[in-house]
Amino acid sequence: MIYRPMYVDKIMAYVDTPFVKVLTGVRRCGKSTIQKMIMEKLQKERNIPADRIVSCRYDSMEYEDVTAKQMYAQLKGQLSPGGKTYLFLDEVQEIKGWEKVVNSLVSDFDVDLYVTGSNSRMMSSEISTYLTGRYIVFRIFTLSFSEYLMFKEKYDTVGDTRTELAEYVRLGGFPATHLQKYSQDEIYTIVRDIYNSTLFSDIVKRNQVRKIDQLERVVKYAFQNVGSTFSAKSISDHLKSERRALDNETVYSYLEKLEKAYLLHRCSRYDLQGREILKTQEKFYLADTALRYSVLGYHADSVGSSLENIVYLELCRRGYTVYIGKTNDGEIDFAATRQNEKIYVQVTQEINSEKTEKRGYHRLLEIHDNYPKYVLRADESAGGNYEGIKTMHIADFLLSSEY
Cα separation of 182 and 70, whole Å? Predict the structure, then answer.
């Protein structure tokens, strides 16, 4: 296992606290492995005996027809009589009523509890009702650029960061694809399997979606339009132009299901003058850029929006709440807030004309506050300062610890 301190260290800080530790994220982003890392640390650093650590994986066939009552009885029977039991429950959303089980275990026994799940319905009103104030959510993402380099150096020579960034854009960051050297086709085969299992297990099967071809068309539209503002109506109108009628409500429902399965991230627009979240023309970003290329094929002209996708995910990893910033004159890519901090970010593949320069810098100059402003580029001229706006290469930004 390759250690992922970004998550492990944060979670370890809550060991032996009364909070249920909830790890969520897209399938195969590394949640189960992070649980194993926690278990290993408990044994090696906290001297917890192995018989007081219990692990169950609920997406296994072994638990296919298990009820919540049976789940409770089984776990109760595995509790240690000699001290606190550390329970690690993987993919708990597969068991209907798991929230009641977790609540009962936490209330009635001396346990330290960790759960993972690949669907945001875990964060529904049910868990809020049963575990109010007693759980902490850790959102797990696919590998960051920094983690990607760390994984790669275990099996291959790592080149300069700018070359590696181009590879990272194409190949994405699903951990399973970077445990050894794979070809691009092999990586896309693995990612396509992740995509298919998520689509059919977490969306089609769970929601009893009948018209799978319609769902897939919505997925492809969203994948093709990463980084562009659109609405359910935009998709509906596009499908009508292809003589495939689909009403707005159905499109919205599909987008919502894709979000809940963590395949898509919704990024709302925020009016920087009026200081309000706007309800129309949102953007959607992918859980990983390799999803786009495994489904649609790789196209060089999509790199710009994929770079934007990568920066969005990095800001989310670092705990920012991210919006599209609406100015009087247009939009900036990201206005990101974290407690009392705020940063503004424009992402551009290269600046090769007055038009791209205006988009990159002038809109940021419209914002008259003292929070940091960045223009991130992927061309060789990246670097420097423009009227207080810091210019950085995207690779340097992703590896920086200054924000």
Answer: 42
DSSP letters for 92-135: GGGSTTHHHHHHHHHHHS-EEEEEEESSGGGGSHHHHHHSTTSE
* CA–CA distance, 56 with 37 (Å, rounded to integer): 15
- Going from the C-alpha of 16 to that of each of 83, 185, 373, the distances in angstroms are 12, 44, 40
The whole-number average pLDDT for the span 349-357 is 68
224-258 pLDDT per residue, tens: 999 998 888 889 888 888 877 788 999 999 999 99
pLDDT in tens, 168-214: 999 999 999 999 999 999 999 999 999 999 999 889 988 888 889 99
115 with 92: CB under 8 angstroms? yes
Strands (E) across 149-306 are located at 264-271, 276-286
Burial class (CB in 10 A: 0-12, 13-18, 19+), 48: buried
Residue 87, classed as helix, strand or coil, is strand
Q: Which residues contact 63 (CB under 8 A, 6 or more apart)?
A: 56, 57, 71, 94, 95
Strand partners for 399: none
> Which residue from 373, 396, 392 is spatially nearest to 383, judged by alpha carbons?
392
Per-residue model confidence (pLDDT) at position 353: 59
pLDDT of res. 125: 52
Contact (Cβ atoms closer than 8 angstroms) between residue 288 and residue 26 = yes
Give the integer Cα–Cα distance in Å for 294 and 288. 11
- Tell the residue number behind the tokens 């790592």, with chain if given: 158
Specify the pLDDT at position 21.
96
Distances (CA, A) of 334 to 41, 141, 361: 37, 19, 13
CA 161 to chain centre: 23
What does each C-alpha distance from 257 to 106, 116, 206, 228, 363 come to in angstroms?
Answer: 30, 19, 10, 20, 34
Helix (H, G, I), strand (E, B) or coil at 15: coil
- The alpha carbon of residue 65 and the mean position of all alpha carbons in its chain are separated, in whole angstroms, by 29
For residue 11, pLDDT over 80 is answered with yes
Domains in the chain, please, with CATH?
A: 5-139 (3.40.50.300), 146-399 (no CATH)
> In the structure encoding, which two tokens stand for residue 205, read together?
């099967």
- What is the per-residue pLDDT across 255-303, written as a single tens digit (0 to 9) for each? 999 999 999 999 999 888 878 888 778 999 999 999 999 999 999 899 9
